[in-house]
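Entry for the shared binder. Reason: the reviewer on the internal report wants the predicted structure included alongside the sequence.
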Amino acid sequence: MKQRILTAVVGLAVAIVAMAFSYTIVLNIIMSLLCVVAVFEIVETTKASANKFILVVAMLYGALITYMADFTWTFPITLAYGFLMLFLLLLSYRTVRYEQISFIFMMSFIVSSSFAAPIVLSRIYTQDFVLYFLLMVGGCWFADSFAYFIGSAFGKHKLCPFISPKKTVEGAVAGVVGTVLTNLLLAFIYGLVIAQLGRTLVINYWSVALISFILSLLGMVGDLFASIIKRQCGIKDFGTILPGHGGIMDRFDSTLIVMPAAVVLFHYLPVLL
């Protein structure tokens, strides 16, 4: 438990730095580094490829897509990346299987798209990026925390015993409810702070509640998706870089769907009126 708390404190510090320097390339660098480590972890621990050059290519692709965070370039770069991976499969067909290449391509694209989302948000909502960032990460991390603690204490009904035996229905419900309430509180506090600085915000709390509800569910889906990969590959964690939590992928698995989805939801369900 001490290791989990210490790691959470370090993670909070990184998040604060990311929010404080969201208008600079610091955010791009932080998210790119996280993406590179996440891609490395998921390829290495699942033994998706024994070819280190393919691993390096996947990591470089993830870093580039995340750092640029420009959807106008995502398609051509991803297309070129796909053709390159096919070419590498032709060169290493004796040691690398097509399903391994497909898995690496899929995961590097999903992971990079996820880590690029905060950068996209910082460009769209520059003035109130802190609010949107908190609501976004709250959509998965609050759900995960509430589900873990409430599920551990009161959970009796298994949610998906064949995928993740420790997850419970009680924990899932607590995660959703806790996320909605916590994000509403964060939005309220943010509005008060901004008002003290001389600017008035009109917050659509209905949108905050609905977005938080959807993101908390998507966070659980992302977590279960990662659990399927780990179970089928016979591994406990994707890495060991975060004591008490595992690897970067173990900490960010629930964000794989949440962060890109948040960008879309914020657009169609305005948080600020």
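Summary line for the report: Strands lie at 158-160, 164-168.
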